[in-house]
């Protein structure tokens, strides 16, 4: 059984809702500091606020880029990345060009990811695949392209649009495909300790969830 402390360090405490208020972000950051989560994950408009609220602690700020559809041009995603990094983001969760992948435009997908990696200037970049929209072969291909483009992580899902989120099978496939040097972030529908631990057992090294507090409270009860 993973320790509660280690589990907390694997959680990206998340609120990327379009209607998230400053009060909501304040709560998110306060909870992240209290439980020593790895990051808070927020929309670009909330990066500066989150960074200010987390000054002086080890909790990072993760910003979503090209969110939630991934349909922006590579230049737009790169610009958005530079903007959030300048405001204090330490990690980037970018949505892959899903339509490009499904159209067989592998070079476009690679350039899209690589542009964000370069714009991030050494900050951690995670590539959201939106696995619910991909075939088995497309999931493998997306992982390999992200790896070639220099990303640090591949991530299952945005959690938006009513699509299914992370699955143990997808996490295991992603881990098998990328090997041991990249990270896998499981996100979407992870709301309890049992599910989080199943994802970790399958190969996830980060968990994206809006219910991090509840998961930690469950863990503390059984430690």
Helices and strands, in order, run as: HEHEHEHEHHEHEHEHEH
Shape: globular
Radius of gyration: 16 Å
Strand order of the largest sheet: 1-2-3-4-5-6-7-8
At CATH level 3, the topology is TIM Barrel
Cα-to-Cα separation, first versus last residue: 8 Å
CATH C-level name: Alpha Beta
Oligomer: single chain
The number of distinct helices, counting runs of at least 4 residues, comes to: 10
Helix content: 40-55%
Contiguous runs where pLDDT drops below 50 for at least 5 residues: none
Sheet with the most strands?
8 strands, parallel, barrel
Structural class: alpha/beta
Strand content: 15-25%
* Count of separate structural domains: 1
CATH superfamily: Aldolase class I
- Kindly state the mean pLDDT as a whole number? 97
Tally of extended strands? 8
CATH architecture: Alpha-Beta Barrel
